[in-house]
Amino acid sequence: MIWVYYACIPLYFFGSFRWPLLVAGLALELVYLAGRGLTLGRLPLIGPQDTLAFFSCSVALMSIPFVFSRELRGNRSFSWGCGLMAGLFALLSLPFPTLNMPLPPVLDTYWFELHVALAFFAYALFGVAALLGGMYLNGGGRNLLDLQYRAALVGYTMFSLSMISGGIWGYYAWGTYWLWTAKELWTSILWLYYSMYLHLRIKGPAWDKAFAWIGIAGFLVTLFTYLGVSMLMRSSHSF
């Protein structure tokens, strides 16, 4: 099945300026993840290889509603940007080994899988929002800011649900809803950051450029929460 995964990467990188090829890349990546899931008997969400692949797929999947939106229909820059982002994270996953062991007992619950899947969907939407903010700063219309806000709002909602399901998972796993780990602290920082960011929208047109820039910076905070904390800090759950 790994050849299916290899095949989706060039589709993302070199063909996604046309949306049918972006969809084709997404379809191949979904086939790969489904095949791994059936082989493992669980969602492939353990270790950097699987999580980067899942993140890549989430970026492509979350971009599809925007690709077909009235504001972006026919916009090759957006589909190419999403394909580039999805392809980059898929490529980053390749040096890491796949982890094929069964879930440890502490992770063997639907709450864990729901928590992680929602988090990655939210991360992907924060990435889409950052891309839309960059397109606005590059001379796009104000409607791109409205789309940026919608992407971040839906991502924020999913992220909030991820935190709730993560707390329930933590209670079943460790007997507490909260552990003072680096991952949980940065998750809270990310949630507070986007709470602030979404409230800035009410300040009106004078803050449009700042709103776009803060949305872009938010994706950097997202990447640090996901990758930076996992690689640089000790935590009870790194990936």
From TrEMBL:
Cell compartment(s), UniProt: Membrane
Tagged with keyword Membrane: yes
GO MF annotations, alphabetized: heme binding
Pfam families: Cytochrom_C_asm
InterPro entries, A to Z: Cyt_c_assembly, Cyt_c_biogenesis_CcsA/CcmC
GO CC term, one of those recorded: plasma membrane
Main subcellular localisation: membrane
Domain Cytochrome c assembly protein positions: 55-233
Keywords: Cytochrome c-type biogenesis, Membrane, Transmembrane, Transmembrane helix
GO terms under biological process: cytochrome complex assembly
Alphabetical list of PANTHER family matching this protein: CYTOCHROME B_B6 PROTEIN-RELATED, HEME EXPORTER PROTEIN C
Designated name of the protein: Cytochrome c biogenesis protein CcsA
